[in-house]
């Protein structure tokens, strides 16, 4: 009897071993099949590309057969999702960290009240920001440069206040932007031609630009055709909805101001900085704001100042200002420029142009106050100081401090100087190139999942966790631009690398609201964001902020670990988003998954909550 039991046990063990070996072989062959490009994810993507589906981007996947996850199945979790109600229509243009009522409780000195002041935990909204009645999808670029639907930003005050200066005109149900500005009533193109007679704008040397006090960002809008991308900023409501108009036009812009804290950009980021009657007191506080421009200006970069007090002797009567005040103002600016060792290249009409020297060889005898040694890119909520940021070292035969940058578009995939010099711990040239290859592969998969990516449908794109900018580089297209966000808690600070590639970006903490108006991005990419912020802040708050800044019928691509994706999917089940899960392009056995979401179209009404 005992012998028979022993024989049966051996038989069962043999069968179990056979089953395990068989399953291993099956999954090995399945994985190889997936990696070959003919797996489930790719076949679905191919089907979508042929069918031309728009909102229902991918059909249902039998995801539960691949992973159990920490929570219930997708269908069960969706039925138990918390439902988020619409906010009251008064919040249609709500900007949480630039709220006007809260701003007025802070000091006006040095524009402190216009800076970021975010709500306390108990003040945060937990509802969905509604679109205004009549909201429509913006016009595609380049038509959007010149026309914005009135319903999307129904504010007419600038059409009266800036009528003579050709900022904006109201025509029927649209706003028209003739391309004028306070300093260029004849149009931005002619104004840029004047700058181009001094600054090498055409050959790709100048690629990234900073526009301080941008108005409706016509300068940045017209630089686009010259392959220059401008980061524009202006304070909330100094002129009604100016930044909102810029983003509706499809021009990169954020709400911001030169005040008491450093601007959220890395050192040596911009090839050119610009102020056209931006009302910034450049000569005040020993030129503190010029020192901040110097920090973010690349060695060899240009600073343009047009309008008062430039050439005050010929213009003080037209400006209706005392010539003594203007003379003193320009004297302070000239002195600050000398302390910064900028070379004045031109002063013609009301435009003056300075160039930052490529290194400090001719400036070493300056008797100035330099900033203390430390991380010059550690700027988030750091006080602006009255000190000059030292030049980085010059290495080898290169005469440019920090390394010479290739012209654009060559610089997009050239090795950035910060990588080549080894200044980012743990990053090598090889790992950087591998990252580029990885993102080319990822973006190719995205384009199969959602064929609208290359169509011009998505103009304003955000990458919430940008890394080296691989996603933005791989998706690069004249029809779109990417706001590369560097989380302040990221393991490696690589925003400087992103700028060296000829891309733009900004530092941000996703536990807080982003410095933009609602409905300003068409497509949001969130790679590893929720794993990064796990236990840092509430996932729900981040998702509600994403909903605030995403346009109706805009899309989101989440890429994260499967358990994190399931949690995210459960929350957005109550946010009026349509979602579909997609396997990693290498097959269903890879734990990283893709979740594609599309925000439904809806507008506010007087019965909305909160």
TrEMBL record:
GO BP annotations listed: methylation
E.C. numbers: 2.1.1.-
Principal subcellular localization: membrane
Methyltransferase is among the record's keywords: yes
Transmembrane segments: 15-33
Bilayer topology: Single-pass type II membrane protein; Single-pass membrane protein
GO MF annotation: an example: methyltransferase activity
Domain of life per record: Eukaryota
Subcellular location: Endomembrane system; Golgi apparatus membrane; Membrane
Name of protein: Methyltransferase
Organism annotation: Acer negundo (Box elder)
């Amino acid at each position: 009897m005992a012998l028979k039991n022993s024989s049966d046990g051996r038989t069962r063990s043999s069968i179990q071993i056979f089953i395990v070996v068989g399953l291993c072989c099956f999954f090995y062959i399945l994985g190889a099949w997936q990696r070959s490009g003919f797996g489930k994810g790719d076949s679905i993507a191919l089907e979508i590309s042929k069918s031309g589906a728009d909102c229902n981007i991918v059909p249902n996947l039998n995801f539960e057969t691949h992973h159990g996850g920490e929570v219930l199945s997708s269908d069960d979790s969706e039925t138990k999702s918390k439902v988020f109600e619409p906010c009251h229509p008064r919040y249609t243009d709500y900007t949480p960290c630039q709220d006007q009522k809260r701003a007025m409780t802070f000091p006006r000195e040095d524009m402190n009240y216009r800076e970021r002041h975010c709500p306390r935990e108990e003040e945060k909204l937990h509802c969905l920001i509604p679109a205004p009645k009549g909201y429509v999808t913006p016009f595609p670029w380049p038509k959007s440069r010149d026309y914005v639907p009135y319903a999307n930003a129904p504010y007419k005050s600038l059409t009266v206040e800036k009528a003579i200066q050709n900022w904006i005109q109201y025509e029927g149900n649209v706003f028209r932007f003739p391309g004028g500005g306070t300093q260029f009533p004849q149009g931005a193109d002619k104004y840029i031609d004047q700058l181009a007679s001094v600054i090498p704008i055409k050959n790709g040397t100048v690629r990234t630009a900073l526009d301080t006090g941008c108005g409706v960002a016509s300068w940045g809008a017209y630089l686009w055709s010259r392959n220059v991308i401008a980061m524009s900023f202006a304070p909330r409501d100094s002129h009604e909805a100016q930044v909102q108009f810029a983003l509706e036009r499809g021009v990169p812009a954020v709400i911001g101001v030169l005040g008491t804290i450093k601007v959220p950009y890395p050192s040596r980021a911009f090839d050119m900085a610009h102020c056209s009657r931006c009302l910034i007191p450049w000569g005040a506080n020993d030129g503190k704001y010029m020192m901040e421009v110097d920090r973010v200006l690349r060695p060899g970069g240009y600073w343009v100042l047009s309008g008062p007090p430039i050439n005050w002797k010929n213009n003080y009567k037209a400006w209706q200002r005392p010539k003594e005040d203007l003379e003193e103002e320009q004297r302070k600016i000239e002195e600050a420029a000398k302390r910064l060792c900028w070379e004045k290249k031109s002063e013609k009409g009301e435009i003056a142009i300075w160039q930052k020297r490529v290194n400090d060889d001719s400036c070493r005898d300056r008797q100035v106050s330099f900033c203390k040694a430390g991380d010059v890119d550690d700027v988030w909520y750091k006080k602006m100081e009255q000190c000059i940021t030292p030049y980085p070292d010059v290495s080898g035969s290169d005469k440019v401090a920090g390394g010479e940058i290739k012209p654009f578009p060559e610089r997009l995939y050239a090795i950035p100087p910060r990588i080549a010099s080894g200044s980012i711990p743990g990053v090598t040239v090889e790992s950087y190139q591998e990252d580029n290859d990885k993102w080319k592969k990822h973006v190719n998969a995205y384009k199969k999942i959602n064929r609208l990516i290359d169509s011009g449908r998505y103009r304003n794109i955000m990458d919430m966790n940008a890394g080296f900018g691989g996603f933005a580089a791989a998706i690069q297209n004249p029809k779109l631009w990417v706001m590369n966000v560097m989380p302040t808690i990221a393991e490696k600070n690589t925003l400087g690398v992103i700028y060296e590639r000829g891309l733009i970006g900004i530092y941000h903490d996703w536990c807080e609201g982003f410095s933009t108006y609602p409905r300003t991005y068409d497509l949001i990419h969130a790679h590893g964001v929720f794993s990064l912020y796990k236990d840092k802040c509430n996932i729900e708050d981040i998702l509600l902020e994403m909903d605030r800044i995403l346009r109706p019928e805009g899309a989101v691509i989440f890429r994260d670990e499967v358990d994190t994706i399931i949690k995210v999917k459960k929350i957005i089940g109550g946010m009026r988003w349509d979602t579909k899960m997609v396997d990693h392009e290498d097959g269903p056995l890879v734990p990283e998954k893709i979740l594609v979401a599309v925000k439904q179209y809806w507008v506010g009404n007087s019965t909305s909550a909160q």
